[in-house]
Amino acid sequence: MKQARRTLRRIALIGFGALGQVIAGELQAGHLPGVEFLGALVTGTVPHPGLRSSWSRLEDLLAAGPDLVVEVAGQTALESHAPGCLQAGCDVVAASVGALMDASLRARLWDCARQGESRLLIPSGALGGLDYLRAARRLGPVHVNYRGCKPVAAWRGTAAESMIDLSTISKSTVFFRGGAEEAAARFPQNANVVAALALAVGDPSAVTVELVADPGARTNRHELTAQGVAGTIRLSVENSPLPTNPKSSRVTAFSILDAVASHWGEP
Ligand SMILES: NC(=O)c1ccc[n+]([C@@H]2O[C@H](COP(=O)([O-])OP(=O)(O)OC[C@H]3O[C@@H](n4cnc5c(N)ncnc54)[C@H](O)[C@@H]3O)[C@@H](O)[C@H]2O)c1
To answer: Which of 13, 16, 19, 21 for a ligand 1 pocket mutation test, highest count of atoms within 8 Å of Cβ?
Structure first.
């Protein structure tokens, strides 16, 4: 017999930056019916306006009793906090997918999820088409060429600054060519898409990456061509950046909300 569904599900965030604030705003506005926003795990002591409850220790977040935790804080935070959430039986949606390029962390998280009978969910984030890649890989190896092109401002504060002079480039410039693992390690704030691709095709070495700074770009553009036995997919996505953090795309927040909604059975 089916168990009666609980009417209210509770979500807590790890991180309350650009993505966290959009997600919290949507939840507080009731745009995911039946979901209550509990609060966020934050660093620092300055209270955030618009945040009812905040915690500095994971134990306090878990004590609030979330059903699901959304990580929107960065790779280090995912590595530090996701194991504890999963072990405590709390499902986790991970935004900082780049961290999962580390095979030992992946194995540790799957282990914690098994122990806690919980799930680690990976949203499609700034990109689409991951469902196609996951399906295609069942037919055989899939090779992906990915090109990520963002406005110059989006690369400030990243390793790109030591590879090109961002203040003087006048045209679209490729500053990185390499494999998915290297891209994720060197560009932790920007390589989540690359990691999501590598996980979708099940093999980081099957993904080659080009990263581009474009002074004329107003959007974050992702282009990929993937080929395998199933056929070929060519995808080009242009995302509006979040005004509060141009390194992140607005759609990512909604992809996370969508992952939560589908996880809880919303069509
Ligand atoms: N999957 C995707 O496609 C995708 C797209 C964009 C961003 N992201 C990831 O999402 C993360 C959040 O993005 P954002 O735009 O909100 O970044 P942001 O920098 O605006 O916000 C991150 C917030 O997390 C906080 N934080 C850092 N470590 C923390 C910790 N240990 N505990 C609690 N809070 C902590 C920071 O102080 C900051 O306020 C980024 O790390 C990025 O890697 C993923």
So the answer is: 19
How much is the mean pLDDT over the chain?
A: 92
Q: Given CATH 3.40.50.720, say whether it is the number of domain 9-121.
A: yes
pLDDT for position 248: 86
Q: Which helix (H) or strand (E) holds 245?
A: strand 245-249
> From ligand 1's centre to the CA of 220, what distance in Å?
17
Q: Which two tokens stand for residue 19?
A: 């993505």
For ligand 1, atom 30, name the residue with the nearest CA.
77
Higher-confidence position of 85 and 126: 85
Question: What CATH topology corresponds to 130-242?
Answer: Dihydrodipicolinate Reductase; domain 2 (3.30.360)
Q: Is the pLDDT of residue 55 over 60?
A: yes
Which of 86-90, 99-103, 104-108, 263-267 shows the lowest per-residue confidence on average (mean pLDDT)?
263-267
Average pLDDT over residues 219-231: 94
- Other beta carbons less than 10 A from residue 197's beta carbon: 26
Rounded CA-CA distance 5/50 in Å is 30
Which token pair is 8?
């209210």
Q: What number of residues does the chain have?
A: 267
The domain limits of the chain are 9-121, 130-242
